[in-house]
UniProtKB/TrEMBL annotation:
UniProt feature, compositional bias: Low complexity: 14-31
Protein name according to UniProt: Uncharacterized protein
Region Disordered, annotated ranges: 1-31, 50-78, 116-154
Regions of compositional bias (Polar residues) in chain numbering: 50-63
Domain of life: Eukaryota
Species of the source: Clohesyomyces aquaticus
Amino acid sequence: MSDNYNRNCDDDQGNNQNNYNQGYDEGYNQNAAQDVGYAAGAVEGEYNRASATVSQEEQNISNDFRRDEQAVENAPENAWRATEQVAGEAVQGVEDIPSDIGKGFKDAANWLGDKFGGAERKAQDAEQDVDNFGQGVEDSYRQGEQEGEQEGGW
């Protein structure tokens, strides 16, 4: 019985296989192959783009690492240079104190001179105005006196 059973199963499988292949035409198989090829090409393209992106990022990381490594190597020299510059500026500031004080006194004296000089000029102008006024009064008096003598009034 088992021999017959196996023979019948083998026949059924063969028939089923034939029926399966007969249900599809050659055009469908060609279209499916093209679709699979297209999908494989798209996957390969994405893989290539991802690979290029990863390579670029690796290069960026490498550049960043080299830049940071150089900064660490230069740190002592940069710190020394900055300290030297600040110390030099501080020394110059201390050395400039006497001239800064002298300049301050000179500026204050100039300011006071301008203020007092302006006041002095105003006083001189006022004195001149008073003198001119007095001269004008004298001139007016003399003119009136002369007119009075000519008209026979005095």
